[in-house]
Write a structure and sequence with these properties.
By secondary structure, this protein is of the alpha/beta class. It contains 15 helices and 17 strands. The chain folds into 2 domains: about 90 residues, Urease, subunit C, domain 1; about 300 residues, Metal-dependent hydrolases (TIM Barrel, Alpha-Beta Barrel).
Amino acid sequence: MSAQPPRPVSLLRGATLADNSTADVVLDGPVVSQVVPAGEGVAAADGEVLDLAGYVLLTAPAEPHAHLDKARSFELAAPPLGDLGSAIDAWRTYAGTMSVESIADRARAQVLQMLASGTTAVRTHVDVLSGDGTATVEEATRGARALVAVRDELAGLLDLELVALAGPHCPDEHVEAVLDLGVDVVGGAPHLADDPLADLDRLLAIAGRRKLPVDLHTDESLDGPVTLDAYAMAVRDWPRDRQYSAGHCVRLGTLPEAERDRVIAEVVASDLGIISLPITNLYLQGWDVPVGTPRGLTALRSLLDAGVRVAAGADNVRDPFNPVGRGDALETASLVVTAGHLSPAEAYSLVSDGARDVLGLPAAGPRPGARAELLAVRGESLADVVAGASADRVVVHGGCVVARTTLTTTIAAAGVPAPVPVG
């Protein structure tokens, strides 16, 4: 992976769009100024032209829910394969050994791979490393210090937003210390607390005092407590200049129909964004049911039909919570098609326009007036791209090419006998 400065582009020529039309896309700095029939676009006098014939041009993905502090730790932590509880235990044990530098190194490697695959905005949760609550402030803030440094280092290549993931045993002073470092959003996992609603209230109180957005891990189990409705009602009258979202919401997918619809109505009334995380939930849920194993996924179709703002993300990558994954939005979209029974177009929308909406980012994509956050993938159509996920990609952030991958494949000719060795 070589490095070069971002290259401003003024014209993307001959790209296939999601509606199968072929167009030229004219850029004016970080904004798309025109989308015209192929061959009609005019570049600025000193602007670079990029030939995208044979590529599908799409809104660049936004990752709504990553864990960069955990990424690529699976082999280091050597966890047992298992459910959420065993993953949490393995992670806590390994987390005690981490340095700020080692966290930053893994996070940087993972986010650059995500950028190469096309993701130009990432929201990552970062653990408040309080352990059982007895850690020092310095120990508790290791992950946050690492991710703030990576965010500063990669500014200009992609947008990176940080969420303080505060566990039930995390003291408020540790959460406050992490936020003081420049972490952007209040997060946590109230459903894991002995008193889920009390922990929900605690986290929302911190966010209210700090006037910050909220993104909570919510009801991440096939059964057990439901906190999504209480969360939605609690933020109903909060200022709309901040985003409020809930990740996982697996329990919503297992509720009886009437109860599911009641909870969704509360979500709609509060305009709460929902983030589905298929790869990790499919991995973690159902270990204790060996026959007819249920799969963990939120109620995607019901949420979309109700008009909820929905995103989908890659979540954990190669850590105790999920030993596989590439952090590629096309992998997430493919899983949403398979496990969530959405169309390829619906699935890609969840990892691009839907994700940007839930994160409160400006509209982007190959549309006049939108931000020039773009992904070109070699392929014939949107469905072909979601299915094939070619590595041939061009990534544009803020009107500049920030990543390009070119794939070369060589296949031996059929029907030609191999040479016979001599001697």
